[in-house]
Each structure stands twice: as structure tokens, then as C-alpha cells.
Amino acid sequence: MAQVVGPVADTAQAFSSPQYFDFSAHVGSSVSVRTAGGETLSGELYCYDAGQLNLVVLREDKEAGKADFHVVRRGAIIGISIEKPLESRSHLSRPPLLDKSNLDRLEKLALADFEKRKYRIGVGVTAEAQDLFDFIWKTHPDCVWREQDIVIQSLEVSIRPPYDPSSVSGRDWRARERITSVISKFRQRREREAARQLQNGTDPSSSSKSGTRNGAPDSAAQANNACGGVPEAAPAAGGCHKGE
Length: 244
Prior knowledge:
By secondary structure, the protein is an alpha+beta fold. The protein contains 5 helices and 11 strands. This is Lsm12.
């Protein structure tokens, strides 16, 4: 988050009323805004939302090519002034109109996909146990977590900690043998990876430690790995106008 400048003393700087300010004509200009809370924020008028969100986004450039973004509700802005107008807008093209129905559809699909993926993340399990679950899920996508146990529902087989071949239980011996074989393949693959890391001079335990914190799993890291970087929900109604 950007550091918010505190209340400022009265200056000769002229602030216009946002009610009469044409945001679309000044996208890309350097501006300062004053909020109802007595704060002032400065930066490039990066984009604005004229829909339900009714937001204004300012970009404040930092060192080494970094930038902070200030997101402000237009209703909270009581004054705005232009610090440096954009020299030329001739090179800017009008952005294409966004199909709101398509955005809503993509948002629903992304949220539904996330709801499915989040159940693949174990709670209070080790990184190795999560890796095993993900390995089994590739061929048995009906497997689920039941507390600490991995359960393959179609085979009625469960795997208890410490998740080795002897931890497999189930009524059908053929199903047990099948999952035992999968666990063996998983462990063989990890052994090969550990041997390869030793040859490369890296610590093989580092991969098993990733996704844990103080001996407990880092749920944020696991969520990102298991969910494959699920995208955020699509913009809400109104879209975001950039360079309009």
C-alpha cells in the first residue's frame, strides 16, 4: 500500500470540484486529489471507473521502475487539481468497449473453478502430503481430504499419515494395490529429484520444506500451488477506462 500523505495545510494550489472535472480528458496527466478525510494524494491519473464502483486510480512512480497505486472512491474526493497535463493524446487510441455479459461469465467461471480447486488444499498437512495428493489427483480427480486422510472416493480407499504404502486401507485389495503402486511411484520420483539436486549441489530438503512455516504448512503457498494461480474475479460492472 502507498503511504498516504496526512492532512495538509492550506496552500495556493487550486483544487477543482470533482463534480465538474472531466476525468476522461485527463487520463495520463499528473494530478493531486484532496479527500474528505483531509488527505492529499498525487500521481498520474492512471484510470477511472464510471460504473458501479465509481473509483479513481492514481499511479505514483517510485525508484527503480516501481510504482504505488492509490485507489480512491470518487465520492470521497472533494477537490482535484492538474499538476502536469498530458502533453499529447494523439498517440492514444480509444480502448475497445467491454462486453459486460462476457465479463460476468468469465467471473462466474473463475469463481466456480476456484471453489473446486480450494478443496484440493489440505489443512494442517505437510508439503509432502500435499504433493502426494496432487500426484494422485492427476489420475484420480475424485480424491478429497478428510481431515488428515486422503480418500479416493471411487475406489473407497484412504491413505493415513505418514502416507506410505502401509498406510493404505480399503475393502478391495485390487484398489489398495493400485493406490500402493501410485504411492511407490511418487516416492521414487521424489528420490530421483533428491538425487538430482544433490548432483547439482543444492539441498534436497529445501523442496520438501517449501510450503511450510514453523513446521506447519504455509496455506497461502499451498493455495497458490494447488490452485495454479487462480485469477482474480473479473472487473465489476462499468469496467475500467484506460486512456479513454
